[in-house]
From TrEMBL:
Natural source organism: Flavobacterium cheongpyeongense
Coiled-coil stretches noted in the UniProt entry, renumbered to this chain: none
Signal peptide: 1-24
Stated name of the protein: Mannan endo-1,4-beta-mannosidase
Active site: 189, 297
Lineage: Bacteria, Pseudomonadati, Bacteroidota, Flavobacteriia, Flavobacteriales
GO cellular component assignments: extracellular region
Keywords: Carbohydrate metabolism, Glycosidase, Hydrolase, Secreted, Signal
All copies of domain GH26, residue ranges: 32-366
Catalytic activity: Random hydrolysis of (1->4)-beta-D-mannosidic linkages in mannans, galactomannans and glucomannans
Pfam families the record matches: Glyco_hydro_26
Subcellular location: Secreted
């Protein structure tokens, strides 16, 4: 089934000063395309929101690695506007596997750019100092943030990992030599205790030190200039002060985010008032600091609520005066019958997702034109 829907939008009017917006991006040497993306995301967030899906092009419900396919496209006729990938395969395994992973993702990122979509990158970094992978495992994992910071026993190893990321950032070039911009989101959900970099295992000072070094080393030492840097705790905050408790500073963050499953129906528990409050907190911070904001992860596993898209997600996003560039739901596993966060043909929430897709507030890849150019506008369909 391939349902094609139509939207009608007026062109987005953009007022510029000497061809550039005056927003607070942290890399003054960012590529032109990266600066344009940053500016255009800020403009989009005033009236719209982009829809994103993690691993959307790599696999989906019942399929794996099929060119041009995504579950979202199978339902709506359009890929999501924001496509999530992960740098988890860039360390902790044989070099040959790392190189293969880089090549696989390189095509994904370039293809998304060429279609007019946007790539965001999460980073499930395997613990550089112990076993246990990226999750914290008692009796196996070591609290490693203090070890990978400058002066730590594993700092040089951490630098090598960052060099691999930099090499990938240099490699994602279009046919005409342009570097593809990416939204890079390291150490997400750091206020939880499930990852080895979580709050329970890392002091505030060490977390900030590692974050600042990560950005500075990539940007200033290795010369990566096609990243937008996103800061995204989980939902364990109730005030601006709590949200900013581990904030590394205005020179090291471009985008404020939040990962929030708990308030949106996980385990049958909904607290949409709490979700609205938290969204407003960091959206207001972004407005005040002239930066970006996004709901960097959310979703309802298996989507058993047939009207979740319009009655839960959309209404929550539209209740307050928010400025969010995008909302991203988690992945659709290729083999699991229940681990999915976006609908696929025949799934119970498809009719409601079509309504979500058709709503003028939400934007998908087909709605974008020249997102990497200064004269960005929305497509008229």
């Amino acid at each position: 089934m391939n349902i094609i829907t139509n939207k009608k939008y007026a062109l987005l009017s953009v007022f510029m000063i000497t061809g550039h917006f005056l927003f607070a991006q942290i890399d003054s040497n960012a590529t032109k395309e990266t600066k344009n993306l940053y500016n255009n995301l800020k403009v989009i967030s005033k009236e719209h929101i982009l829809f994103g899906h993690q691993h959307a092009l790599e696999y989906g419900h019942g399929w794996f690695n099929e060119s041009g396919r995504s579950d979202v496209k199978s339902v709506t006729g359009s890929h999501p506007a924001v496509v999530g990938i992960d740098f988890s395969g860039f360390s902790g395994q044989a070099q040959e596997k790392i190189e293969n992973e880089k090549e696989r993702l390189k095509k994904n990122v370039i293809d998304t750019y060429e279609r007019g979509g946007i790539t965001t990158v999460s980073w499930h970094l395997n613990n550089p100092a112990s076993g246990g992978g990226f999750y914290w495992k008692d009796s196996v994992s070591i609290a490693a943030m203090s070890l990978i910071k400058e002066g730590g026993s594993h700092h040089e190893q951490y630098k090598e990992i960052l060099k691999t990321i930099a090499d990938f950032a240099y490699s994602v070039k279009t046919k005409d030599g342009k570097l593809v911009p990416m939204i890079f989101r390291p150490f997400h959900e750091f206020d939880g205790d499930w990852f080895w970099w979580g709050k329970k295992y890392t002091s505030r000072e060490d977390f900030i030190a590692v974050w600042q070094f990560t950005v500075s080393y990539l940007r200033d030492t290795l010369g990566v200039h096609n990243f937008i840097y996103a800061f995204s705790p989980d939902n364990r905050f109730n005030s601006e002060e709590e949200y900013l408790e581990r904030y590394p500073g205005d020179d090291h963050v471009d985008l404020f985010g939040m990962d929030d499953y708990g308030d949106f129906g996980r385990e049958g528990k909904y607290d949409l008032e709490a979700a609205k409050k938290k969204l407003k907190i960091f959206s207001d911070i972004a407005i005040k600091k002239n930066k970006l904001a996004a709901l960097t992860e959310t979703g309802l596993e298996s989507i058993p609520n047939a009207t979740w898209w319009t009655e839960t997600l959309l209404k929550t996003l539209q209740t307050e005066k928010l400025e969010l560039a995008y909302v991203l739901v988690w992945r659709n596993d290729a083999t699991s019958a229940t681990h999915f966060y976006a609908p696929f043909p025949g799934q119970t929430s498809v009719p409601d997702f079509i309504k979500f897709y058709e709503d003028p507030y939400t934007l998908f890849e087909k709605d974008l034109k020249n997102i990497y150019h200064s004269k960005f506008k929305l497509k008229n369909n």
